Amino acid sequence: MTRPVTLFTGQWADLPLETLAEKAGEWGFDGLELACWGDHFDVEAALQDDGYAEGRRELLDRHGLRCWTIGNHLVGQAVCDPIDGRHKNTLPPRVWGDGDPEGVRRRAAEEMKNTARAAARLGVDTVSGFTGSSVWHLLYSFPPNDFREIEKGYEDFAERWNPIIDVFDEVGVRFALEVHPTEIAYDYVTTRKAFDAIGNREGFGINFDPSHFAHQFLNSPEFIEEFAERIYHFHVKDSKKRLNGRRSILGSHLDFGGPERGWDFVSPGHGDVDLEGCVRALNRIGYTGPLSIEWEDSGVDREWGAQDALAYVRRTDFEPSTHAFDAAFAREE
Amino acid sequence: MTRPVTLFTGQWADLPLETLAEKAGEWGFDGLELACWGDHFDVEAALQDDGYAEGRRELLDRHGLRCWTIGNHLVGQAVCDPIDGRHKNTLPPRVWGDGDPEGVRRRAAEEMKNTARAAARLGVDTVSGFTGSSVWHLLYSFPPNDFREIEKGYEDFAERWNPIIDVFDEVGVRFALEVHPTEIAYDYVTTRKAFDAIGNREGFGINFDPSHFAHQFLNSPEFIEEFAERIYHFHVKDSKKRLNGRRSILGSHLDFGGPERGWDFVSPGHGDVDLEGCVRALNRIGYTGPLSIEWEDSGVDREWGAQDALAYVRRTDFEPSTHAFDAAFAREE
Amino acid sequence: MTRPVTLFTGQWADLPLETLAEKAGEWGFDGLELACWGDHFDVEAALQDDGYAEGRRELLDRHGLRCWTIGNHLVGQAVCDPIDGRHKNTLPPRVWGDGDPEGVRRRAAEEMKNTARAAARLGVDTVSGFTGSSVWHLLYSFPPNDFREIEKGYEDFAERWNPIIDVFDEVGVRFALEVHPTEIAYDYVTTRKAFDAIGNREGFGINFDPSHFAHQFLNSPEFIEEFAERIYHFHVKDSKKRLNGRRSILGSHLDFGGPERGWDFVSPGHGDVDLEGCVRALNRIGYTGPLSIEWEDSGVDREWGAQDALAYVRRTDFEPSTHAFDAAFAREE
Amino acid sequence: MTRPVTLFTGQWADLPLETLAEKAGEWGFDGLELACWGDHFDVEAALQDDGYAEGRRELLDRHGLRCWTIGNHLVGQAVCDPIDGRHKNTLPPRVWGDGDPEGVRRRAAEEMKNTARAAARLGVDTVSGFTGSSVWHLLYSFPPNDFREIEKGYEDFAERWNPIIDVFDEVGVRFALEVHPTEIAYDYVTTRKAFDAIGNREGFGINFDPSHFAHQFLNSPEFIEEFAERIYHFHVKDSKKRLNGRRSILGSHLDFGGPERGWDFVSPGHGDVDLEGCVRALNRIGYTGPLSIEWEDSGVDREWGAQDALAYVRRTDFEPSTHAFDAAFAREE
Amino acid sequence: MTRPVTLFTGQWADLPLETLAEKAGEWGFDGLELACWGDHFDVEAALQDDGYAEGRRELLDRHGLRCWTIGNHLVGQAVCDPIDGRHKNTLPPRVWGDGDPEGVRRRAAEEMKNTARAAARLGVDTVSGFTGSSVWHLLYSFPPNDFREIEKGYEDFAERWNPIIDVFDEVGVRFALEVHPTEIAYDYVTTRKAFDAIGNREGFGINFDPSHFAHQFLNSPEFIEEFAERIYHFHVKDSKKRLNGRRSILGSHLDFGGPERGWDFVSPGHGDVDLEGCVRALNRIGYTGPLSIEWEDSGVDREWGAQDALAYVRRTDFEPSTHAFDAAFAREE
Amino acid sequence: MTRPVTLFTGQWADLPLETLAEKAGEWGFDGLELACWGDHFDVEAALQDDGYAEGRRELLDRHGLRCWTIGNHLVGQAVCDPIDGRHKNTLPPRVWGDGDPEGVRRRAAEEMKNTARAAARLGVDTVSGFTGSSVWHLLYSFPPNDFREIEKGYEDFAERWNPIIDVFDEVGVRFALEVHPTEIAYDYVTTRKAFDAIGNREGFGINFDPSHFAHQFLNSPEFIEEFAERIYHFHVKDSKKRLNGRRSILGSHLDFGGPERGWDFVSPGHGDVDLEGCVRALNRIGYTGPLSIEWEDSGVDREWGAQDALAYVRRTDFEPSTHAFDAAFAREE
Question: Least CB-CB distance to B297: which of E219, E325, E327?
């Protein structure tokens, strides 16, 4: 076991951090990737209250846990998205405000800058999250897209995120986009386009989560190698295709967990993700950051799932070899 | 060859109907499925000009062609859709008007009623087309959908289309939705939901096009058998998955024909569609309507494609057997 | 681990129950599914000897074991079957009698009624078993079947089993047919036909064993969902296809374990059965009964196999989730 | 095209031979494989009426057709089978007689001897057909088989067929068993056992029909090479697996053509059979006999099917190469 | 049909060119790719005899044939290879000389320069051929390779071929290496290395033959797109994997055509090559040169094969589309 | 766990045996398969120094280890190979001598005889190793092979190894060739040829390592059954195909561990090898020798790998069953 294994707290935000940290410590996690919602990590408090970040660290310490990364997916999502009621449900009131779309986007952008500053105060160098996208909804080109509109979506992304990343750079923190459908980058092609749009700047990298690639039929280990320099964080999650000729790979507008969906998220090791292949690729590119487990399996009790996933990651995350296996065949001269 | 083979004219609307009919007649088609755009079939003219429909029929007759169906996909799409610039490009100015979304949707609904009336004047009993959808853009549930919103999308569909289908019923014409991503129904689950929403009324059926199912990993022949009573029209088109671990099944926001797409439309017989399986299913359900070829292959010259497709359909569309193959084993007594 | 894990004793009937119970208790099983052969559970004794059932329960208690189900496959098989020497080898002499086929079938039917009564005495509410079939041998229709004969097979089944199930109903016990080739129901189609034949009465349900589905290329989790209301018991067993172009899926009239067979039974987790998929389906339908391990692997020592299977089931049988994984993304208001 | 292409007449026995021969001649067949039922070829008449065989040949000649083989599947089936009503429906009354099983089997055996004699009179050297089997119904070993019984089935076959083949030898005709489920040989294992049982005598060979192998997941070209010396005749027929997780490979006791079957017979070239692979294997073993098309497709009109199959065979049956492709790279010295 | 279809004459060198040209003309080929062996095209004669090249062209003209390319695989092979008896069999005596390896390699290099000059005289701009390789035999690294030796193999290639390509450049002809096992480039990796070694100079490109990629499990259309600028010629040939668990993909040191080989060359359209995919890729990169059919199928008569291949290429080589299929959906404004 | 599990020491020859034995003992291995290089087992010392073999055994004893087999792959390789610099790197100087190829081969042959004698002294009855091959480099037949040369390669093998095996026979030790590309036998075909060449003598058998079969697409369990009488030793190693359309199955002349290779060796249980299938086959043939783990995974730390492999083998190596699972269904009479 070469890398710390953490638990992403986003799906546990109904529990106070104290409760969750106690559980995670007992289960044997090395740390938590704190979500910026629930009471887990409050960006505003971190900036306004000098002792807040220190307090969070002490809380974690008490349970033998560390923090390498915080995640602010929900606010990041609102930076580029067309805004609707779904965002109202997931944004802090101070970001939602009056709900005027452009206002929401601008406040979300400011909040992401503050997230960078808060991360710096907490002493972590990576923020994971989403970007949103002004063009995601044009996915299937009908009525036929004017593809210049798609290009404008990438320009819009760059215009909105460049100033955010400027702040990240200032405070020495990196943003790690979780490449994911609904985001500006969700596969090889769009990741390349997003990086090109933002000038391949170092402050903007990837939180790679292979569960979003399996149902797209994408190869995760190769992605890690292709974008080796921008893999800043890694999510351990899984998904499983359940195709039988009657279930669409597109999901049928059904909620996760529905028996008629063509694919679903499942606990790590229970789906199509080649985690060992990812570990080998991470070894090759020299990634030494956390493997952060994200529980998303509508069919499995989450506490059972967290422990099952931890055991799975521990036995799969092996150290690379330090020499060629046929080296010992040669005589030493 | 048991069924008439027609050519859908929608992708040839840059050509005058006279030109296209001459070609199609020479190539050996039995008829045309006239698109309600270009100069092929003008709904307004058909209603206002007593001789228009008759004139279209005569034009077809001159080239040995018949018409069983007209298609008005572009206007139908606007009935339920959120409206944007893409609709402006594809709607007649009289429907687009000032572009106010609700106004566009209402005028599109009226135009669909008129399309039914125009079809009746032309003497055809089926209109193929699209419905649009107010919820398609919520396909991937992030930010998490409130799934009551999805249900409302089906209610909205029923409210807008029930009055349209009333007119179809009055004039003795059926509407055949092309089950298709971006529409209210695009797979098994959503087709069932759409039919339930609209009360399974007879006036609303399916134009089945298997090319939209192949890339969703859906079984087309089984769909034909499951919805046997509502298969009102059949499109012969094909699509091909091009997955290699680096191309997403979601299409990467790339235009059709791009080499990095994970799937693409191709000429009939050049892709993943099991046309023979569809023919066997159509035989079992007793479908005797046209097989309408729709050319959509960015890599193939359309004139070559139309003729290649016609030959392919002719050799694939066989008659069913009239008795069991082992019947002759028994002695007659 | 949410459900009791039991061991079906049928393949251990060469051992006295006392011996087997001691082993099973030590291995950590929760209980036994007692076979009505060997000395494990004697239907006649249970009815004639007031203390017999109580004695069996005490024996199990001593080893920390319970009993939820008894299995009487061998006698049930004779109820509908054409009778031959194979039945003589597997029936109690009192059922075989003089071996006259119809007499055997009738005595077998009486014995199944008694099995229900004996189960009630033992305090279990489920009897697993077989039905036999008068038409199984007509599987491949050559010489061509008169398919009315097949229908008569289902009628024969209903006539013979309805009176048996009447007794089951009277004593508050359910019969759970192990859906299985050689039985009246062995797949989706025949299960539907059998249920229809017997009026879908509640007393007649399914002991589902996915090992019989894998070599038929049938989906087990979907079967569980389709027949959710009739899944009364679950057998954990596995089978593996060994096709190489020279071995027939039909088994070549070879004994199990032969290297030239196209498929074979194997220890749970060593074959093609998707047990996790079954567990998810069982969770969805709310099945809370036992998971009963049936050892049938000609290549594995049965004691090793029983323990290996128990460990496998324990780590695969997880509890379902109690809430959606994205519930915590929403602000509480 | 190197080999004659014939049509097996068994499925056309409702038509007088005159009618069928006229059609087959017009379609371009080289000959007919005459079935010994309907009015196509009457074994009794051929033996009793000196001009009968000559008359059949003249009839064929008139339509430009020849005959290399006659088929007597229905009578051969009764030689080893347990006899039931299905045989009554398919046997000539003189063979069925009073229906006493052993009597039927003996009369069937005599009829097969006469078939050899009649074939000799007609001037053909091969009779295709079935053997029946006394053990086919024990296919799935439950109740568990006493496998000595299976061995006895092969002995019974040898005892009944050796005297028949003696007559074949006397008159210089070979019997070609169609390897087929329900027969004594239906795959690699059972073909080997059957040949061993009958002493690998030359008079008893194979009519190979790959459609019976595809649904058993067996490799047909390798079979041809393994049993090269006993391939006496070849049937061109096809079958197609239709598995979707809900349809059993065992056929569900459904009639051919039913939409819920897991596999079905289909017209040549429309299924899973690798005919080109068979042709290459036939070339390698030097088979120069007919390719005999057997129409069995419940979904295709038989006249369309016969012509479609003929065209398919003509374009697939190519001549082997006479020298290595890289021979011309070497200098001649 | 957009491109000329030619026949590569290398496998027909036992026939005088006159004979072959007559056949090819009758079969409908557009031209021949002349092999520099047999009497097809004699490099020495072309340089020494002023009328030779003219005479060859006239011979072709008489049969309606043209020549775009000549192939000198056998001599090219000797440029880098370790030399053994196999080369003696395939080289002209003037190149073999005394058989001293380095002398053979040097004479072969001179002959390739002369081949360029002879091509220029014949008026063709492309020579297809092989390079040989000094390191091919180190394919499987055991005893473990010193991988610096592999690098030296590429340097050796560059040293030997750069002077040859200088002559090609001088006379305005391009060399097209057939990427092929046994050559310096046989897959993606080695093609990239070979091009790098030789400085990516324009005079050295590819004769792409997808039959060498199918058995390596390589994607041919993607290769065409990746090396678009260096695709100078295209061979239509096919190969087929015949894996059954007992045949090695490595070929078992068996001659082509042996039934135990794991793969073999087959006539175009009879194997695993995706020719349509190649055609689409060739369309995308704008390749307008010949499609040259190379017959190599040990199981098919070569004259049947040549004609079958020609028909196959004619129906597969379609013209690309000139506009998007959804272009006609937009109103013209 | 029925068989001893050993560690092959060849890849650990950089460590003194004392160090390695201490580790292996602590990890729980049952023994070591000593390599005849490094300081692990010195053939010369064993013959010259009376106490050497005894000393090695004592060293192993101290760590609770035994030795059933010694391996001399590197010297064996030189017996038939064309000799080059790679052999110099891997041979003892006394075998390499002046490097004259034939001299090297002869000294290697003598050393293999001595290896047999040394094995006898150590008290082991099996030597694993390689043979080399004079024809391996002719793998792909271009320039076209004269296949008589291939036959001569097998004759050369027999001539060189027969005298070696004579010594093995004399001292009661068996040679077990590791079937492997680069050796005289590497698949089914070549193993059969090698055995035939050497007269199927008992002294020459197989060290079976399934990792060499997986990338050749060969079935390992069937091989074990086919060559049952000659399976003398078993290596537990694994390999994994990494094909993606851009990586060749041939390895691209890349070193093991390179990300562009089409297959690679991996730690047992991490690849394509069906170890359970092999265990079942070994059970069927009655093999009771060691399962010897060979670590070769360029991506995994070897100490982690050795322990991971040991745990994997322990849980996979089960005992066979001693009776049929349905035996207990029959009444005892």
Answer: E325
d(CA A123, CA A172): 10
The pLDDT of residue B332 is 55
pLDDT, mean of residues A2-6: 92
- The answer to whether D106 and D78 have CB atoms below 8 angstroms apart is no
Angle between helices E275-285 and E302-316 (to 10 degrees): 50
**Beta-strand relationship, E291-293 and E231-236:** parallel
> What residue in B sits closest to A253 (Cα-Cα)?
B139
Phi and psi angles of residue C194, each rounded to the nearest 5 degrees, phi first: -65, -45
From the CA of B122, how many Å to the nearest CA of chain A?
Answer: 27
pLDDT digits (tens, 9 = 90+) for A86-115: 999 999 999 999 999 999 999 999 999 999
Residue whose entry in the numeric block shows the structure tokens 């390749």: E287
Give the distance, in angstroms, between the CA of residue F333 and the centroid of all CA atoms in the same chain: 51
Chain F residues touching residue B245 (CB < 8 angstroms): 244-245
How far is Cα A10 from Cα A5, in angstroms, rounded to an integer? 16
For D206, phi and psi rounded to 5 degrees? -125, 135
> In this structure, what is the dihedral angle of CA atoms B227, B232, B236, B240, given to the nearest 10 degrees?
-30
How far is C-alpha A255 from the geometric centre of its chain's CA atoms? Answer: 20
Q: What are the DSSP calls for D112-149, one per residue?
A: HHHHHHHHHHHT-SEEEE----SSGGG-S--SPP-HHH
Mean pLDDT for each consecutive 10-residue tract of chain C (333 residues)?
90 96 98 97 96 97 98 98 96 97 98 98 98 97 95 98 98 98 98 98 98 98 98 98 97 95 97 97 96 93 95 93 83 57
CA distance C85 to B191: 54
Chain D residue closest in CA terms to E86: D330
Nearest to B86 by CA among C331, A285, F36, E330: E330
Q: Which chains would you list as touching B if contact means 3+ CB atom pairs under 8 Å?
A: A, C, D, E, F
DSSP states of A127-141: EEE----SSGGG-S-
User: Could F188 and E246 be called an inter-chain contact, meaning their C-beta atoms sit closer than 8 Å?
Assistant: yes
Decide if F115 contacts F122 (C-beta within 8 A).
no
Asked if F263 and F215 touch (Cβ cutoff 8 Å), the reply is yes
Q: Which chain C residues are within 8 Å of E245, Cβ to Cβ?
A: 244-245
What span, in angstroms and rounded, lies between the C-alpha atoms of A59 and A210? 31
Q: Which chains touch A (3 or more CB pairs under 8 A)?
A: B, C, D, E, F
Is residue E146 classed as helix, strand or coil in its secondary structure? Answer: coil
Phi, psi of B326 (to 5 degrees): -100, 10
Is 0.90 topped by the overall pTM?
yes
* Nearest CA distance, A146 vs chain C (angstrom): 34
Q: Let me know: does D208 contact D180? Beta carbons within 8 Å.
A: no
Amino acid sitting at position A257: G
Q: Which residues of C199-211 are buried (b: 16+ CB within 10 A; e: fewer)?
A: eebebbbbbbbbb
Q: What confidence score (pLDDT) does residue E330 get?
A: 81
How far is the C-alpha of B179 from the C-alpha of C96, rounded, in Å?
A: 61
Read off the amino acid at residue E43. Answer: V
Q: Would you call D297 and B327 a contact, using CB atoms and an 8 Å cutoff?
A: no
E133's tokens: 């390789």
Q: Interhelix angle for B302-316 vs B17-27, to 10°?
A: 40
Chain B CA closest to residue A181: B140
pLDDT in tens, E11-45: 999 999 999 999 999 999 999 999 999 999 999 99
Q: How far is A187 from chain E (nearest CA, A)?
A: 19
Angle at F251 between CA F85 and CA A286, to 5 degrees: 100
Amino acid at residue number C245: G
Where residue D245 falls (left for φ over 0; alpha for ψ -120 to 50; beta otherwise) is left
**ipTM for the predicted complex:** 0.95
- Measured distance CA(B169)–CA(C188) in Å, rounded: 39
